[in-house]
Amino acid sequence: MSPYVRYLAKRLGQFVLVVFVGITITFFVTHATPIDPVETTLSSAAAFGSTSPEAIAMLRQSLQELYGTGGSLYEQYLTFWGRILRGDFGPSLSAFPTPVATLIARALPWTIGLLVTATLLAWAGGNILGGLAGYYRDNRLLKAVGVISMGLHPIPYYIVAFVLLILFGYVFPILPLSGGYQMNLSAGLNATFILSVLKHSALPALSLILVGVGSWFMGMRALVSNIVTEDYVTYAELAGVDRNRILYAYVMRNAMSTQLTGLAMSLGAIFNGAIITEVVFGYPGIGSLLIDAVHAGDYSLVLGITTVSIIAVAAAVLLIDLLYPLLDPRVRVD
Amino acid sequence: MIGRTVLAAALTAGLLCSSALGQGLISEVPREQTLIVENPEGTIKNAGWFNYWSVNAGGRSTGLQQLALDTLWYIDPDQGLDGAWDNSLAAEPPIYNDDFTEMTVKLRDGIYWSDGTPFSADDVVYTVETHMKTDGLYWSAPIQVNVASVSAPDPHTVHFQLKEPNSRFHVLFTVRWNAMWIMPKHVFEQAGDPLKFDFNPPVSLGPYVLENYDPNGKWFIWKKRDDWQRTTLARFGEPGPTYVAYTDPGPPDKRVIAQLNHELDIIHDVAPEGMFTLARQSETSKGWFDGFPYAHPDPTLPAVIFNHQDPLFQDRDVRWALALLIDIKAVSMASYRGAATISAIAVPPTGTHPGDYHEPMEEWLENFEIDTGVKTLKPYDPTISQQIADMLRPSMGDDQVPSDPEIIRSSFGLGWWQPDPEAAAQLLERAGFTKSGSQWMTPDGQPFRIRITVEGEARPVMTRAGSMIAQQWRQFGIDAATEVAEGTLVTRRNTGDFQVIMSWSVETFGGHPDLAFFLDSWHSEFIAKRGQPQPPRNWQRWSHPELDRIIEAIRGVGFDDPQALELGRDYVKLMVEEMPIIPLMSYNVFTVMDETYWTGYPSAKNPYTNPVPNWANTKYMFVKLRPTKGDQRAETAQ
Q1: Which residue of A has its CA nearest to B516?
Q2: What is the average pLDDT score of chain B?
Q3: Number of domains within chain A
Q4: Confidence label for A270 from pLDDT (cuts 50, 70 and 90)
Q5: Which residues span the domain enclosing A222?
Q6: Could you report the predicted ipTM of this complex, rounded to two decimals?
Q7: Which residue, among B474, B444, B557, has the nearest Cα to B168 in the 3D structure?
Q8: What confidence tier does B633 reach under pLDDT thresholds 50, 70, 90?
Q9: Letter string b/e over residues A4-37, b meaning 16 or more CB atoms within 10 A of that residue's CB
Q10: B97 Cβ contact partners less than 8 Å away, ≥ 6 residues apart
Q11: Mean pLDDT computed over B55-72
């Protein structure tokens, strides 16, 4: 067996273990919540009407049967794994009887669309600017970019988001305050709908990019600042190699492996959703779905979202681990 | 070549930007014919589900219950268009036999579903029978507990045979916030399992039909029916808005911005600070009151609720001592920034209740005495609301805070208990408590420790009230503090996992004096054991022989019987004497209405209905709303 195949088998084993342990922990943590979905539903059902105590007792029993919350924790755990292996997360308890998978499938494209675009743009912008700033350390413009990034970075994200919202939603009201697209518009692959989605995602994307660029910028600048002191860079400069070629082919390429790992982790974490972004901008997606599920004690939905997230993050890390030996000759698997 | 490419790309981008920025708030619907309303349910996870009868299945106040569903009767929490009671699908009030084991309902003629099918008694019978044979529907349990059989002797008469006498059975079909809605038989009988049917698109019995909705649950748009005259609301005229959009505008700050941008006609609720901002910055934004306290008082009574299964609160002297340590003026300022409508008695000071309870009982309250064993005091102070108004006037200005004593009493409430720490100390000492240094000790020698459970950021007004009360008790020498329960509050309240909780166990119709809506569930037979879930609404788990007598007496008299009001007053007196909960104020909702596009909203001066837009009875508002810039449909027709 070749060293790479052994490495592959070991990493796949780790992947399965991480997913199993992660999902198991999530199962028991969510079931330890003091929020009882049946009581929450009962309160909601009885809150606005006059319902006699006998009727409440009867409804409680019906709901426990419908939701499948009557069995022991161990029985529920086994049922849960049976469902997971069939790709079924069961029905949502707070949107009963809609399957959890349907709710996730409806929310996920919005989250992926917004976060993949914003993450890639921030990653590309931050790395290019950070690489340039690390290499051309005397450039005033790049120094200014550095100062702005350093200034933006420590500001809590929700403040940046809210400032943008007030600026472009109220002071200069040119962008919408919330939603994924214009009211009364039907979703479809047409210019009106696509433009509407772009318009509604502009503010949330801008907020993510502004904060994200600074982080990638500083990381890349620090990496490049170290690499430029390496002997091979000095040698290339003494040999008269074009400076841009040195920067892109030698310096940034060597710095990219770290940044690629970060990118993979960020893309994997996209499945967690951007909770603050979605709440502040009223943007549809998996983050606000998760928050809603937590508040409602809907552990079917919480488990569904968390399982997808665990698998996505673990898969992203696995992919990077598998690609590293192929991309970077310095990484050895034997 | 490169320059041309860049120029072409820039022009395309510019064109796209201008096209995108040019898109309005709503596509293909005239803004001036559309009322935009906040749905406080937020984003609906299961937006395509309109089967209201299936528990938890979809949104309820998305316009569905306000515009498309209907039932037999409505009680308005305010005055109503033609009195608070309205016979909606029913042609007259319920007819009971002498022992309340049968109820007969006469239905209106000429009412049609939006698909053209006539509404009839068969729909009512089908709705009830479906709930009798299906477990897990929203109203399955109360129907199965009460109904022996239901029949339709003719197309406009429904007859219920009840299992036990129940003089309040009709309340199940009487809207306060909602009620048991009538199903379209011709749709549901074709649909199979009613638990798994999405009812999309909904066939409407109200004056609007669903026009469009966002599958992500952010908005729902309804259009006025062409045959709106064939609905029950038509008795009061034509609904003004052609379109109504219910949306999720997001957190309170964004609701304020949206209304300042005139993109949200009705805000359901904001924090007091948001209301004050709108009052200052937007001439077109109106609250229920013209000035302080702006908010609409809901027929719900936030209170300090003791857990009577905790030995600390089983002595009336202790409960009264804690009440006499509360300065309601400070609680009003902390919770609602002064915009509270206070109540000393356990009935919300809203709708017709002040006339039925607060004002007639004020003399009794003024004469009510407490004997501490050392001294006798009359704790009721009828001038408290006046004092709150006087406190607010310097900072808010004369134009915002009323000076007419009658307006102050109707908006800020009447009196409350005067703080009396000396009497509180005497009551605690009589209950066996002692003071060690600055700390009060319980009769068994432990520090007197109270934890007040509050909900946290989800309900800031109640949380701030709880914090202020904890501070006042702490200043007296009690180890008091708040505990933030967040999302666990409901489970903790229901299972009795609290000492003291900021919540409400009193909810009334507002527009009718009958108290059975909440009071029947307070009977001692329903009190759960410690740790077991308590059925709504006796969260305090308090029982008293006199209370049981009152409840049983109410069960034996009719809904509109004057004796019910007298029994209600007996309940109020018992609650004052025993103080099982400390009533604070009504639940004030800062509903803000923007008059840029629409006028005719209800207000304290014209209280024809409740403005809080998630209540089903807000359907009555639509016939009074008219476009601010004139009725363009009428102009076009001319």
Answers
A1: A50
A2: 92
A3: 1
A4: confident
A5: 105-289
A6: 0.82
A7: B557
A8: very low
A9: eeebbeebeeebeebbeebbeebbeebeeeebbb
A10: none
A11: 92
Are the beta carbons of A280 and B250 separated by less than 8 Å?
Answer: yes
Establish if A260 belongs to a structural domain.
yes
Residue A105 in contact with partner chain B when CB distance is under 8 A: no
Domain boundaries in chain B? 297-589
Q: Which residue of A has its CA nearest to B216?
A: A284
Residue A49 is assigned to a structural domain of this protein: no
- Phi/psi of residue A147, nearest 5 degrees: -65, -45
Which among A60, A62, A183 has the least Cβ separation from residue B25? A183
With respect to residue A178, please indicate whether it lies within any of the assigned structural domains: yes
Cβ-Cβ contacts under 8 Å for A179 (sequence gap 6 or more): A200, A282, A283, A284, B214, B218, B219, B247
Q: Which residues of B513-528 are buried (b: 16+ CB within 10 A; e: fewer)?
A: bbbbbbbbbbbeebbb
Give the CATH number for residue A156.
1.10.3720.10
Whether domain B297-589 has CATH 3.10.105.10: the reply is: yes
β-bridge partners, B106: B157
Residue of A nearest to B169 (CA): A50
B215 touches chain A (CB under 8 A): yes
From A55, A106, A165, residue closest to B141, measured CB to CB: A55
Between residues 26 and 65 of chain A, which touch chain B (CB distance below 8 Å)?
33-36, 39-60, 62-63, 65
Tokens 């600055």 belong to which residue? B438
- Determine if the peptide bond prior to B155 is cis (ω within 30°): no
Angle in degrees, CA A144, A149, A154, rounded to 5: 140
DSSP symbols for B80-112: -BTBSEEESSBSS--EE-TTSSEEEEEBPSS-B
Residue A152 lies in a domain: yes
Q: Which residues of A touch B518 (CB under 8 A)?
A: 50
Nearest-angstrom CA–CA distance, B18 and B26: 17
